[in-house]
């Protein structure tokens, strides 16, 4: 298969438009039109991982963290980033990064953390707005069902856990075809009145091209009237962090033990314990101190994240426990998630998990 086929699977699960503005997810080296010999999934595309990919005959490395984050003005091998890029180019290995876009979907990185903790009733902690759009069009009564179905199949009509959602209003449309037209109803040069349905559906913004294509293909009119309206609504399945609940409340000390066992930790940095039970758990893989306020507002008993600075621990304000489990530690199961996403689509293809621990932090 082509490398692009694997990329399409990844971007269907976590569209690039969901990444944060500072991020650099996507194709970093190589050509997506190359034939794929194998896929290696990793947290970091270090030079050691690139050489592992070469040895295991994989010419596609799918990494969570982009090895190229800022601009590269020189590629001389003076640091780990340049060494990795040189190695990838030298051995014709594609590096593809799927970073904050995978963080920002409900079934992504944070969901895997929630799996390890056994959380139920999960939802996005800080949903993003302006990720949804509305399409409105006008179609003859007899063709409304066919068009509606085509739009649903293209990805429209999902609101939370509901599918096939639309709004329909019957009315009368008018049109007069000019010279050279071939109107679906009526005759050129004559004003025609047609019983129509105004059809409205909501869709994720990144699917706009697909929705418009489905509309134009399925609509019976030569000239299709439609509106696309950006929405300020929050998308309940796209955003930062996650919040859920333990099936049963536990003590704070008990929860810290759960963290240590679930993530194989030697240490957990945390704020003072408050003598309360833990049941509502907020979390964010990687550097997540920017969501402490959201965790407080959501009524979380504990906020699990990483890379919390000294002064940021004070933001707990004696209202919840902040538990810093480490950046690599919080995201260590992301490679497994990537393998599962790709194997589900390509069950007979070589999709491998890197055997290299890329964590640069050690504890004495």
Automatic annotation (TrEMBL):
<feature type="binding site">
    <location>
        <position position="327"/>
    </location>
    <ligand>
        <name>a divalent metal cation 1</name>
    </ligand>
</feature>
<feature type="binding site">
    <location>
        <position position="65"/>
    </location>
    <ligand>
        <name>a divalent metal cation 1</name>
    </ligand>
</feature>
<dbReference type="GO" id="GO:0046872">
    <property type="term" value="F:metal ion binding"/>
</dbReference>
<dbReference type="GO" id="GO:0005737">
    <property type="term" value="C:cytoplasm"/>
</dbReference>
<dbReference type="InterPro" id="IPR017221">
    <property type="entry name" value="DUF34/NIF3_bac"/>
</dbReference>
<feature type="binding site">
    <location>
        <position position="64"/>
    </location>
    <ligand>
        <name>a divalent metal cation 2</name>
    </ligand>
</feature>
<feature type="binding site">
    <location>
        <position position="103"/>
    </location>
    <ligand>
        <name>a divalent metal cation 1</name>
    </ligand>
</feature>
<protein>
    <recommendedName>
        <fullName>GTP cyclohydrolase 1 type 2 homolog</fullName>
    </recommendedName>
</protein>
<comment type="similarity">
    <text>Belongs to the GTP cyclohydrolase I type 2/NIF3 family.</text>
</comment>
<dbReference type="Pfam" id="PF01784">
    <property type="entry name" value="DUF34_NIF3"/>
</dbReference>
<dbReference type="InterPro" id="IPR036069">
    <property type="entry name" value="DUF34/NIF3_sf"/>
</dbReference>
<keyword id="KW-0479">Metal-binding</keyword>
<dbReference type="InterPro" id="IPR002678">
    <property type="entry name" value="DUF34/NIF3"/>
</dbReference>
<comment type="subunit">
    <text>Homohexamer.</text>
</comment>
<feature type="binding site">
    <location>
        <position position="331"/>
    </location>
    <ligand>
        <name>a divalent metal cation 1</name>
    </ligand>
</feature>
<dbReference type="InterPro" id="IPR015867">
    <property type="entry name" value="N-reg_PII/ATP_PRibTrfase_C"/>
</dbReference>
